[in-house]
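User: I'm new to structure prediction. If I give you an amino acid sequence, what do you actually give back? Let's try with this one:
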Amino acid sequence: MRLLVFASGRGSNFEAIVEASKKNYLHSQVIGLLCDKECPAMEIAKKNSIPVSIIKPKDYQDKSIYIKTLLDVIKRYKPDYIILAGYMRILPAELIDEYPLKVINIHPSLLPQFPGKDSIAKAWDSGVKITGVTVHYVNDRMDAGPIIAQEFLKISDNMKKSSGLEKLENKIHKIEHRIYPASIKKLTEEPFDTLVVSKCLTGVNCRYDGGSKLSKRVKTFIKNFNGKIVDICPELEAGFDVPRPTTDIINGKAMMKGVGDITEKLENACNKIISRLSGSKKILAILKEKSPSCGVRSPKGIFASCVEKTLNVEKGSGVFIVSEEDL
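Assistant: Good question. You get back a string of structure tokens that encode the predicted 3D arrangement of the chain. For your 327 residues, that looks like this:
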């Protein structure tokens, strides 16, 4: 895999990734470093003969020209993943549009706690007993993308004495330098071989009202996905036409207006879909945010519930579920 790293500072995580690649622990190539200013990370790149690009937003009065320039430079590198390593700038939505679920970040706290800057100091000042490190996908919201990995660190009483914050920072950085290459290794060397996606997100008019919930980012991800793709609509699978009455989850049951309890029909349909995933080793599911049939969050859909019950518990399959709002 081709990794393009973004950095703004000293580049310690960048260096950890480069060293992991040099030692063949990480079987991916660091193809370039992109910075938003002159910074010490550039010296690490120079030492390792890694090309460097500097794109300073302040040099562009027109934001659209800055974004176009940024995207043009990224495309020339042809990255498989963009890795943020202390890049202290919010990425434009246009970049995420081009690389959904392909931008990774590391954050020195247990997200969603203490997002943004100075997270280690915030955790220290708050008096929490446990903090840690989070590796996550990047979306439009600050430090809010789907979590890939987390490691916990207990703040001991000894650490609270003199130089405690400095000790905490050192421990956090040690975790970062280990967990980041490990997470990248898992993503790149154990890729998802199956994508399950809600049919309406691909533009198919299968919602209860006859419409779709087309997501351009989902379409972009599908276009670049290398593996089996299973598009689903449990309600269609259960035999309900388009358009159809609305369905709600009430006390854990799927209740269709004017019809009644359709939970069993939806569960049977969902289990048929799950049977089509036989042989899959690592599954990514991109489902609707809220839907009684396949939604990820409140109310959780029947399909998501069946996946968690059938695949995660009984078969131990690797399943990673996100909503279109997570992209």
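You can read the tokens as a compact description of the fold. Here is one thing that stands out. DSSP finds ten helices and 14 strands in the chain.
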